[in-house]
Design brief:
The complex is a heterodimer of chains A (about 375) and B (about 160).
Chain A: H1 3-21, H2 23-58, E1 64-70, E2 73-75, E3 77-78, H3 80-86, E4 91-97, E5 99-104, E6 109-115, E7 125-128, H4 130-136, E8 143-147, E9 153-161, H5 167-170, E10 173-176, H6 178-185, E11 191-192, E12 194-199, H7 205-215, E13 219-223, H8 224-262, H9 266-277, H10 282-314, H11 321-324, H12 342-368, H13 372-377
Parallel strand pairs in A: 6-10, 7-9
Antiparallel strand pairs in A: 1-2, 1-12, 1-13, 3-11, 4-12, 5-6, 7-10, 8-9
Chain B: H1 3-14, E1 51-55, E2 60-63, H2 66-73, H3 76-79, E3 88-94, E4 101-103, E5 108-111, E6 116-117, E7 120-121, E8 124-126, H4 129-138, E9 143-146, H5 152-157
Classes of the chains: A alpha+beta (about 375), B alpha+beta (about 160).
Chain lengths: ~375, ~160
């Protein structure tokens, strides 16, 4: 082995053994450090995965949704508009949608009731989302009563529980035949909740939207790109709010690390003095301190990131699920699909590892340049 | 094997068996590939604008927009010295509204609209003339042109 490499090895060896000598102090440092990395990394992973999920779901969403506004409020759309909108150049398909919210007083949750023309749906039967089945404690083949607008209950048999994929949105979903939706909510014939529009060329959507508003000034077209942006902003805003809260945690960590790492104890200063009188150079001492800092911060970083990964993707971010996933009663039980971003990891690394390493180096350099005699005396 | 005589008689009856079949009568690739034969840009990045010329021998030339397609067709000697206009089996452009391939020789093109293609100003293609007229109104176009009306002077306007 070449001498310089041997020197590094020896110094690393010495660094490790000196870390072990102050086991208690360093373990405390690593665990606090790990905790901070864990919380920040969890947040980053979680928000990233949520955005990814929302993107995946919205891929299937219609290009544009047209609502009607009455006095600034969302109102049913007359079906007569369907043909007029379909004849606009560039519109591929217009699908009137019939849906609404059903409040279930028994378990205090809102269900999204959506009409479907699916031929596989049996008469008087419904399909329900996984979350509905879970909270109502029902399974396929069971009968559930839904209270109509007039207080009369109607029995529906559950034909199918929708699979867990895409749970975030379909968890509280109830699919039923259009006539059942109309009967349940006393929804007038000839009206739909909104219109879903598909365009041949997405570039034409703004033109189509402008034409729809010209045709029906009381309508409000919402583009998919706008929905996507809103979702992003919502997740970002929520993530942002968490970041503000975490900012204080990071700050207190910085104070802690500064205190632990900068304040060289008299004992350490003496140790540096001994090393220097034994023939160590300032560069060697700095290298030693650098290795000590690196071992601590890299260990804490890797442990924290691994724990955060397990927390978010194996335990569905159970620690801050309630703060971030909305206020619905029916929490979806879903596994986030791992979406890792090298960029975010790098930023996290530089935000946590670099400042700590730098914080340890400066005081060591100051101690290492002092005369060994003075260092040992102090 | 028993189907072979049936197939043969069908081919003979329809007269297809008599002349050699034309392999390139329909374009073989519908997915854009390679580089634009005029400007060299990667065609797959602009599938909404892709145009393609298919030759009788099955060879193809892809373009990242109708403008480059016409630049090629109007100066075949420069871009494809070994080919002649007679070798061309089909020319296809993408209808702007449906984003589906349509026969360029029957298509209508709108000049001077506010919609830009990958190479800037474009001759926006439409399968129907009615579509082109509607587009002209919506996007402040100047003229609706047929395939045969487009010449080097038209292309000058697009620069």
């Amino acid at each position: 082995m070449r001498p310089p490499l041997q020197r590094y090895r020896n110094i690393l060896d010495f660094a490790l053994s000196s870390l072990l000598r102050r086991k208690g102090r360093n373990l405390a440092l690593i665990s606090v450090y790990t905790l901070v990395v864990f919380v920040i990394a969890s947040l980053v992973f979680f928000v990233q995965a949520l955005k990814h999920e929302a993107h995946e779901l919205l891929v299937q969403a219609p290009d544009m949704v047209v609502q009607r506004m009455v006095a600034g409020r969302h109102d049913p759309v007359p079906l007569a508009q369907v043909e007029a909108i379909r004849s606009i150049r560039g519109v591929d398909e217009v699908q009137p949608r019939l849906w609404g919210y059903y409040y279930d007083p028994v378990f205090g949750g809102n269900l999204t009731v959506l009409a479907t023309e699916d031929a596989a749906l049996a008469p008087d039967a419904i399909w329900i989302g996984e979350g509905v089945a879970r909270s109502m404690r029902v399974k396929e083949g069971d009968l559930i009563p839904l209270r109509g607008y007039d207080g009369q209950s109607t029995l529906f048999s559950i034909q199918k529980v929708l699979p867990e994929t895409s749970e975030l949105v379909s968890s509280d979903l109830v699919l039923m035949a259009p006539k059942d939706v109309r009967a349940l909510f006393h929804f007038p014939e000839g009206l739909a909740t909104d219109l879903a529009i598909q365009a041949g060329n997405p570039r034409e959507l703004p033109t189509i939207a402008a034409k729809i508003v010209e045709l029906y000034p009381d309508s409000r077209p919402i583009l998919k790109s706008e929905i996507l942006r809103t979702y992003e902003a919502v997740f970002d805003w929520r993530g942002g709010l968490m970041v503000v809260v975490l900012g204080s945690a990071v700050l207190s960590f910085i104070i802690f690390a500064w205190d632990k790492a900068t304040g060289l104890s008299a004992e350490e200063r003496k140790e540096i003095g001994v090393l220097k009188s034994l023939g160590w150079e300032s560069a060697d001492v700095l290298l030693l301190k650098f290795w000590e800092g690196t071992v601590i911060s890299v260990t804490a970083f890797l442990t924290g990131v691994l724990l955060a990964y397990a927390h978010v993707f194996f335990f569905s971010a159970s620690l801050f699920e309630h703060a971030l996933k909305g206020w619905s009663v029916l929490f979806p039980h879903f596994r986030l699909s791992p979406a890792l971003d090298g960029y975010q990891l790098t930023v996290l690394f530089f935000l946590t590892v670099l400042p700590y390493t730098a914080a340890t180096l400066v005081p060591s350099w100051r101690a290492a340049t002092v005369d060994p005699d003075a260092a040992m005396r102090s | 094997m028993s189907r072979m005589p049936l197939l043969l008689s069908f081919l003979l009856a329809t007269g297809l068996g008599a002349t050699p079949p034309k392999p390139a009568a329909s374009p073989k690739a519908t997915v854009p590939k390679g580089n634009c034969a005029v400007c060299g840009m990667y065609v797959a990045n602009f599938p909404d604008w892709a145009a393609v010329v298919t030759f009788r021998d099955g060879g193809q030339a892809w373009f990242d927009g109708p403008k480059d397609l016409f630049t090629y067709l109007l100066d075949l000697k420069r871009y494809a010295p070994k080919r002649a206009a007679g070798d061309i089996a089909s020319i296809q452009v993408k209808d702007y509204y449906a984003l589906k391939a349509t026969d360029a020789r029957k298509a209508s093109f709108v000049l001077g609209s506010d919609i830009m293609g990958p190479m800037g100003k474009e001759l926006v293609p439409f399968g129907t003339e009615a579509g082109a007229r509607d587009f002209l109104k919506d996007h402040h176009g100047k003229k609706v042109l047929g395939f045969a009306e487009i010449n080097l002077g038209t292309l000058k306007d697009l620069e």
